[in-house]
Structure formats: structure tokens, C-alpha cells
Design brief:
The protein has helices at residues 7-15, 25-38, 51-58, 62-74, 109-117, 136-146, 148-151, 163-176, 190-202, 217-225, 242-252, 273-286, 343-357, 362-371, 375-400, 424-433, 462-482, and strands at residues 78-81, 85-88, 123-125, 185-188, 208-213, 229-236, 239-240, 256-259, 289-293, 320-325, 337-340, 405-406, 414-418, 436-440, 453-457. The protein has 492 residues and is α/β, with parallel strands linked by helices. The strands form three sheets. It has an eight-stranded mixed sheet with strand order 4-11-10-9-8-5-6-7, sandwiched between helices. Helix 2 (25-38) crosses helix 4 and helix 11 (242-252) packs parallel to helix 12 (273-286).
Length: 492
């Protein structure tokens, strides 16, 4: 579906480009749209949103959008016809390559944008990741000294993964309560690739995939690219609701169920052991493949005990694939993940992995193999620090934004916050102009059921969170006091 006429989708792409404070707001808006046209993200013929809906999505005045569209018409980039609205002019495509790119369809653009463009004056509260653990540098040096010469003697292609790493991953599963052998494990380039490989193997165009509602934004992109139909099932305190899950299975006959039972993203909830058993049994009854993503499994020794993976509760006839990684626990730059499945499924996944890239980087795999036996020990301090940051962020929000509401998560790296009587997408645009970038609930749930939510990570130093909350408080005060501006002067 071409979302070029969707004001919220266009606002997500434009918003980042309005933070430059040089020139009038209407000129910055016109330049932002011109940049999207120039990059073919808005192709020739794409229809722009009407002035009023775009103004509301950007939390600016309609007169500013009108002036920006006038500016673009003057440049020959757009044209307007009565009854047809404003579209990208054919003349805007002259001199370009023949590629006809469409505006990105996914819901993860706002989340991943800051990773791509790098740091700046804006505080980007868009991704919940920590720096690498301090012990990593010493492990890399020791690996280079003792293991690299032997690794270099091989060809370097290991589609299933280094044997030693698969053995360590199997031991890691054993310790978690899920008996596993090395031939049940396929190593991937992070959990993201693991989900992509499973999607490629199971989803066909038009097939349904059931997810938790809300969910991780990247899954909408991956499942949508495969032609899948996403069906959301709400959560309660124990995890995805079994009554609604059973109804979704019966109605949609999905090819796959995707869940995050351990510290669900974005709510941070921990699925109970009883609920894990219910979900596994329901999926087996309906013949639905279960994919569980446990990437957020770093455990705080002072926090709740983590149950075994959902696969440990599954009946013999269930088909469950368990995904994990070290990216959240050790370092986002260590792109090593894995899939645990039955032996026949692991064989099929290995073939898909070989076609994708012939195997993940060998040195990264060897480094991960060194770390896995001490993973709980190495990440205990990080998990404890995350708990302290969570409490600090909670105190800041309680003091400066007392109207906001959230439940303290059992794990993960973010707070899932509800804004009173406010579309979080509009607040996000106001916050961006106050120098802080946040992810609105729409990115986690396209149905609109969580449009009044924000995901606010607490994986930042205390002083950064202090500054970010201060900026959010100023943005909130402006929005509550004045609402989206109705008359912003046009500066030529």
C-alpha cells in the first residue's frame, strides 16, 4: 500500500528535518518535502496530504503548510488541481534514474532513523541499547592472541555457525531449562536476521501472522515485506491473552505466532510460566508455528526469576522456534544471534542462512563463544544498573510530568507511557522541536489502539535522561497550554 497520502507517515519522515533552526518554518517544511522528492521517497505522481491533516500531524499551523506548498509549486516540484489535491509534479522527476521508489511502508522508520543519521543536538530517545560491556575489549585482545591464528586456517564459511559456538548456545539453553543439542542451533547475524529467516521460511503472500499488541516495530516491516497479514492480540499482566489468541487462531488460521515472552518490547512484561504453557498448547492444537524472541533476556539478580523459554512448555507435536542474541546483553555491535529449533527445522534454516550470507562473521562468533559461559555473570552488573536507571527515569517523570501514567516494567529497557487525552504522534512533533526525539505508540501498533502511548527508553546516562525529561516537560507544557499552534507567522 502506498502511504504517500498518509499525513502521519509523511510527518514521521519530515519531522527530523524540521529541527534545523535556520530560516522560517514554512521554508524548512518545503525544503524537507523537496528533499524527499529528490530522493524519490516521494515519487512523481505521489499525492501529498491536504494542508489541514498534515498541519495537525506536524503540530504546526495550516498557514505554514499552505505557504510550504506554495513554495514547492513555485519551484515546479508539486502541482495542484481542483478535486485531485497536490501531487509531485512530473517535472520533478527529470534528471533522475528510472527507479520509482515509494515512501517506506514500514512502521520502524522513526525508530531507526537516528541510528542511521548519527548523534546530533537532538536527544534521540528512539532506541533502547547500552554501550558494550567493559570486559569486551580484553576478550577481543585475548581472542586475537590465542584463537585468531587457528581461525584463519579455515575457509571462514560456517552457514550453521561455528561448532564451538553452537555447543555453547546449546549449553546456555540447557541452563535456562530447555534441553538442546548443538545440531538444533543455527547462528545468525543478530535476532533481526533470525526473524527475517523464519519469516522467509514460513510466510507467503496473504498469510496471517499473529503478534502481541503492541509489538516491536521492525516486525511490521519484515512481515509486511513477505506479504503477511498482521493480526494483533492484546496483552494482560501475564502475557498475550489466551482467550483472544484462541479466537484469532480460529478466525485467521495463521501461519505463525510471533511473541516476546521475556521482557516484552515495549511493555517490559514477563510472560508467566502458566501462560507460556497455555500459548504453546493453543498453538499446537491449531497447528500454528510459534516464534519466540527472547532478545531482552538480561536478568537482574534482584528482579523476577525468568521462566524457561516457551519451547520448554510445548507439547511434543508443537513447532516452536526460539530466538536469542547477545546484542542487547553485551553490545549492539556484536551482531550474533541464534535460532533453536527441531533438527529438521534447523537444517532448513541453515539452508536459508547459507543463501543469505554463507554464515555470520567468524571472529564475532568466536568472541561470542568465549562470552556465553559467563554471560549471566558479565551482564549482572549491567542489569542492576538498568534497574537503577529505570527508577531514576521514573522519579524524573513523576516530578516533572505527573499527568503521565505507566506501569513499572519487570525488565527490558523502556517505559511504556500513556499520555492523557493526547495523540502521541502530535506530542512527538512538538517534542522534536524542543530537542528530544521520542517514538509514538503508533509505531508499535498501527491499529490506533495505542496512539496515546510513548515508548521512552531508560538506557541512557542519568544526566542525559534528566535533560531529555526536561525537554519533554517543556514540550508537554506547550502542547497542554496552547495545543498545536493555529497561527504561526510566515517568515519569508
Amino acid at each position: 500500500m502506498d502511504r504517500s497520502g498518509d499525513p502521519s507517515a509523511l510527518a514521521d519522515l519530515i519531522g527530523h528535518r524540521l529541527t534545523d533552526h535556520s530560516g522560517g518554518l514554512y521554508r524548512r517544511l518545503a525544503d524537507a518535502i523537496a528533499e524527499l522528492i529528490g530522493s524519490s521517497e516521494l515519487p512523481v505522481g505521489a499525492r501529498l496530504p491536504a494542508e489541514r491533516p498534515l498541519a495537525e500531524a506536524l503540530a504546526i499551523s495550516r498557514s505554514t503548510v499552505v505557504a510550504a506548498y506554495d513554495d514547492l509549486r513555485g519551484r515546479g516540484l508539486v502541482e495542484s488541481r481542483r478535486g485531485s489535491g497536490t501531487t509531485v509534479a512530473r517535472s520533478a522527476g527529470r534528471g533522475r534514474s528510472g527507479a520509482d521508489k515509494r515512501m517506506p511502508k514500514g512502521y520502524g522508520e522513526s525508530l531507526f532513523h537516528r541510528i542511521a543519521v548519527g548523534p546530533g543536538e537532538v536527544i534521540a530517545m528512539t532506541y533502547a541499547v547500552d554501550p558494550g560491556i567493559p570486559e569486551l575489549a580484553a576478550e577481543v585482545e585475548e581472542l586475537a592472541r590465542t584463537e585468531l591464528p587457528v581461525l584463519l586456517e579455515g575457509v571462514g564459511y560456517h552457514p550453521r555457525g561455528l561448532e564451538v559456538l553452537r555447543e555453547r548456545i546449546a549449553e546456555h539453553f540447557d541452563e535456562s531449562g530447555l534441553p538442546t543439542s548443538a545440531d538444533q542451533v543455527v547462528v545468525t547475524s543478530g535476532a533481526h536476521q533470525a526473524i527475517a529467516l523464519v519469516t522467509q521460511m514460513y510466510l507467503r503472500s496473504g498469510a496471517a501472522v499473529v503478534i502481541e499488541q503492541p509489538s516491536w516495530p521492525g516486525c511490521f516491516d519484515l512481515f509486511g515485506a513477505a506479504g503477511g497479514r498482521v493480526v494483533g492480540v492484546p496483552l494482560d499482566d501475564a502475557g498475550v491473552r489466551p482467550d483472544l489468541l484462541a479466537a484469532a487462531f480460529a478466525e485467521h488460521h495463521p501461519a505463525m505466532l510471533f511473541v516476546m515472552p521475556t521482557f516484552h518490547n515495549p511493555t517490559g512484561r514477563l510472560m508467566s510460566p502458566a501462560r507460556r504453557r497455555q500459548v504453546a498448547e493453543l498453538a499446537a492444537k491449531h497447528g500454528v508455528v510459534v516464534v519466540e524472541d527472547n532478545a531482552y533476556s538480561t536478568w537482574d539478580p534482584t528482579g523476577p526469576e525468568i521462566p524457561p523459554p516457551l519451547a520448554a512448555f510445548a507439547p511434543a507435536n508443537a513447532e516452536v522456534l526460539t530466538i536469542g542474541s547477545v546484542s542487547k546483553a553485551v553490545w549492539g555491535g556484536l551482531r550474533i544471534g541464534w535460532i533453536r529449533a527441531s533438527r529438521p527445522l534447523a537444517e532448513r534454516l541453515a539452508r536459508h542462512k547459507a543463501l543469505a550470507d554463507l554464515g555470520s562473521p567468524v571472529i564475532d562468533q568466536a568472541l561470542t563463544a568465549r562470552l556465553l559461559p559467563r554471560l549471566t555473570e558479565l551482564t549482572a552488573a549491567r542489569a542492576t544498573a538498568a534497574t537503577e536507571r529505570k527508577r531514576w527515569m521514573g522519579r524524573l517523570l513523576t516530578e516533572r510530568l505527573p499527568e503521565w501514567a505507566w506501569e513499572e516494567p519487570e525488565g527490558g529497557s523502556a517505559l511504556w507511557i500513556r499520555l492523557p487525552d493526547t495523540d502521541a504522534r502530535i506530542f512527538a512533533q512538538v517534542a522534536l522541536r524542543h530537542g528530544v526525539e521520542v517514538v509514538a505508540g503508533r509505531a508499535m501498533d498501527p491499529t490506533g489502539e495505542h496512539d496515546d502511548y510513548l515508548r521512552v527508553p531508560f538506557s541512557y546516562p542519568a544526566e542525559v535522561m534528566d535533560d531529555a525529561v526536561d525537554r519533554m516537560a517543556r514540550a508537554w507544557q506547550e502542547l497542554r497550554r496552547h495545543g498545536p499552534p493555529t497561527a504561526v507567522p510566515v517568515i519569508v
